[in-house]
Amino acid sequence: MNKRLRTIFQYIFFLGLGIFLVWWSIKDLTAGDKSQIRTALKTGKYILIIPVFFILFLSHYIRALRWRLLISSIGYNPSRINTFFAVMIGYLANQAIPRLGEVLKCTVLARYEKVPVDKLIGTIILERLIDALTLLLIFAITLAIQPDFYTQLIDAFFHSPKSGEIKKTPGYIILLIATGVIGFCIGLWMIFKKKNINDLGVLFNKTGRSIWQGISAIQHLKKRKQFILFTIALWTLYLSGGYIGFMALHETEQYGIKEAFTILSAGSIGMIVTPGGIGAYALLIEKTMQIYGLQKGVALAFGWILWLAQTSVILIGGLFSFVALPYFNKRKQSEQG
Question: What pTM, to 2 d.p., does this model score?
Answer without folding.
Answer: 0.76
